[in-house]
Amino acid sequence: MSDQPETVSYAAAGVDIEAGDRAVELMKSKVARARRPEVVDDASGFAGLFDASALTRMRRPLLVTSTDGVGTKVLLAQEMDRHDTVGIDLVAMVVDDLVVCGAEPLFMTDYIATGKVVPERIAAIVGGVAEGCRQAGCALSGGETAEHPGVMGADEYDLAGAATGVVEADRLLGPDRVRPGDVVLGLASSGVHSNGFSLVRYVLKRAGLALDADLPELDRPLGEELLTPTRIYALDCLALAAGVEVHAFAHITGGGLAANLARSLPKGVDAVLNRSSWIVPPIFQVLQGHGGVPDEEMDRTFNLGVGMCAIVPRESADAAIALLADRGLPAWVLGDVIPGEGRAILS
């Protein structure tokens, strides 16, 4: 056995630059699908370029920005060794916040931190981000993958992203437009989305539920159901705002339906929501039943089947529901806006 000391290098410290380069090559074709005509190639690769000259044709363009992550849903992806969907979740969490004010998403960047760069895994994650950007109509204009040995385990990773959008100032949506007599539309979620997964994981552990469990309430194994990507509403919301009068949107994320909808209400109204107007999807019934989660905790943690709300004049409701149905998005009248104190009330 040699007594020679190990060569001091970045690789010996746990950072594999060649693996990072390989990951970049694997993801190039995936990223190419998430482009817009305004994207300008930067030969150096240090930054993303976006031609903003189109904004000069707008009367008063407001730039809108948002940043978010996927949360502990990534732990389920890691446990299942399934990495091609969490990138879609990331885009949804970012761009669906942007569109609440009526903004069109323009471009997005991502950041992945991992204990060890496995090129195929990184390419799968970024491929999901690119697919999400394609669904949202925005460009994936750049990103960063960082190897953090000693901080994270070899199979651990986390991801975050930020996006920029634009809206005409006089088309800005929000609480100022909401009036008594408006109605609240519920837009169906695709499942748990990307909030509440710390509680999800607690329930699974407490109930002894395996991710490969086949439960009678579900059409597929539990883990696959939980990894269902967050629905991306951006293009649907933009089409709705272009097709009918819309006063406000609310993205139903952490905090649940009532708390998030209240953020889109002015102080002088309440939104009274009818629980009987929709059927809570089976995955939430599974989590509540197996975990013994109280109703109020379900309400303030999960979307319960309502991933986005639109507030529209009553006379626009039927046209709005029909427009969304034509786009394959179930929607319904969830409740009414009445004089009040800025609350959303589930009844």
TrEMBL record:
GO biological process, one term: 'de novo' IMP biosynthetic process
Main localization, broad class: cytoplasm
Catalytic activity: 2-formamido-N(1)-(5-O-phospho-beta-D-ribosyl)acetamidine + ATP = 5-amino-1-(5-phospho-beta-D-ribosyl)imidazole + ADP + phosphate + H(+)
EC category name: ligase
Enzyme Commission code(s) on record: 6.3.3.1
InterPro entries from the UniProt entry: PurM-like_C_dom, PurM-like_C_sf, PurM-like_N, PurM-like_N_sf, PurM_cligase
Listed CDD domains: PurM (cd02196)
Pathway membership, UniProt: Purine metabolism; IMP biosynthesis via de novo pathway; 5-amino-1-(5-phospho-D-ribosyl)imidazole from N(2)-formyl-N(1)-(5-phospho-D-ribosyl)glycinamide: step 2/2
GO CC terms in record: cytosol
Domain called PurM-like N-terminal: residue spans: 59-167
Cellular localisation: Cytoplasm
Domain PurM-like C-terminal: 179-342
Molecular function, one GO term: phosphoribosylformylglycinamidine cyclo-ligase activity
Keywords linked to the UniProt accession: ATP-binding, Cytoplasm, Ligase, Nucleotide-binding, Purine biosynthesis
Pfam families hit by this protein: AIRS (PF00586), AIRS_C (PF02769)
NCBIfam families recorded: purM
Family of the protein in this entry: Belongs to the AIR synthase family.
Name of the protein: Phosphoribosylformylglycinamidine cyclo-ligase
Species of origin: Bailinhaonella thermotolerans
